[in-house]
Amino acid sequence: MLQVTVSDQALRHDAEQRAAALQRMRLVATGLLALMLVIFVACSYLQRQAPWLAYPGAFAEAAMVGACADWFAVVALFRRPLGLPIPHTAILPRNKQRLADSLGAFIAGNFLAPGEITPRLERLDLARWIANWLKDEGNVGLVVDASQALLPPALELAGDQELRKLLRGLIRDGVDSIAAAPMAGRALAAIVERGYHEAIFDRAVDWLAAFLRENRQGIRQKAAERKLFGWIDSWAADGFTTGLVETLVAAHAPDHPWRLESAAFLGRMIGRLEHDPETYETWERIKSDVLDAALVDDYLAWLSDQAQARLKEELGAGSGVVTRALEHGLVAIGGWLETDERLREMINRWARDVVLGAVVPNRGEIGAFVTDVVARWDTATLVERLELHVGKDLQYIRINGTVVGGLVGLTLFTATKLLGV
């Protein structure tokens, strides 16, 4: 409601500005005509004392003729000049239906033609516009307020079973829409960037060394059971275990080959996850298999039940949790759209497909709608709206007619004087 009110106020303000500009240009054009009349009267009165005033008098006389002719032409478009029933005047009001038919056909045949609309849609970056729009806290607040007002009646209308299916589908589709390999690559890159992989490596080395120490006796016993060389087997097993533990302890050094090789391996893995098409397809197959598993399906059903119950509880309590969640979610969506080029392209492609699939095949109906709207306007509304949009520019015709008419009249008057006619 707030957004509609703001739009109405903007439209009224624009109409007021156009009306003021039209009035100013009318005064200028009419004032110029009045000036020509004053000059003509003055020159005619003083011409006997100053014969040269015949020339500006001729200019003013012809300028008045041009001004009156163009005033008549401009006024005749919208109404009858001076209210007189002169033929071929009030052109637009008398041809309102033909104008409506032509306007609807023009919009449908030109603006909504596939050849015109497709290049514009290719340049449309709806996703980036949404991301920029969501940066404004006021816009986020509008969406949150509208969502909170619509959620309770929507939940009641949907019913528990349908709502459960909807939430389950949203969760599943949300997970499925995320490319697994690039997401894993970004997560792994974040771990490496913050140095967490070093701590993980140290923990793994410590765990393996502790395992070998705790199981030294079992390793010695397994070696002795082989009875290849008697006591030598136990001795060799002890030595191997001790050497491996010492090597693992030494791996804590920052420049140890094992540590460097693990870091290099992680770098290669990040690159494959983010850029290798084969790895991308493999992870997508794994993700699809996981989502199709019965265990995951049961978990999604449980999760949707929990989300449904929590949502109803929070809406009933009015604790503000839903509001904050919606705000954070919208801001997160805006940031995601701004940084994820693949997601932006997917949304823009979807928007283009929707427009091409919905607008272009129905452009005839859209043109008919425009025709119907214009035809239903009363004559006064039609004249007012057209005059507000083009009337200011038409006043320049009157001004130009005054100047050009005066110059033509002066030229003809001078030519007659020079030729002695």
Describe the structure.
- The two termini are 74 Å apart.
- This protein has two domains: 2-109 and 378-419, no CATH class; 131-358, no CATH class.
- It is mainly α and 421 residues long.
- It has helices at residues 2-46, 54-78, 91-94, 96-111, 114-123, 126-133, 137-158, 160-177, 180-193, 196-214, 216-225, 231-250, 257-275, 277-292, 294-317, 321-339, 341-358, 363-376, 379-419.
Oligomer: single chain
The residue-averaged pLDDT reads: 77
Low-confidence stretches: 1-6, 228-232
Number of strands: 0
- What integer value in Å does the Rg equal? 41 Å
Summed up, the helix count is 19
Biggest sheet overview: none
Termini separation: 74 Å
Shape: elongated
Name the helix and strand elements from N-terminus to C-terminus, one letter apiece. Answer: HHHHHHHHHHHHHHHHHHH
What structural class do the secondary elements suggest?
A: mainly alpha
Task: Give the helices and strands, then pairings.
Layout: H1 2-46, H2 54-78, H3 91-94, H4 96-111, H5 114-123, H6 126-133, H7 137-158, H8 160-177, H9 180-193, H10 196-214, H11 216-225, H12 231-250, H13 257-275, H14 277-292, H15 294-317, H16 321-339, H17 341-358, H18 363-376, H19 379-419
Helix pairs in contact: 1-2, 1-19, 2-19, 4-18, 5-17, 6-16, 7-16, 8-15, 9-13, 10-12, 11-12
Summarize the structure.
The chain is an all-alpha fold and 421 residues long. 86% of the residues lie in helices and 0% in strands. The protein has helices spanning 2-46, 54-78, 91-94, 96-111, 114-123, 126-133, 137-158, 160-177, 180-193, 196-214, 216-225, 231-250, 257-275, 277-292, 294-317, 321-339, 341-358, 363-376, 379-419.
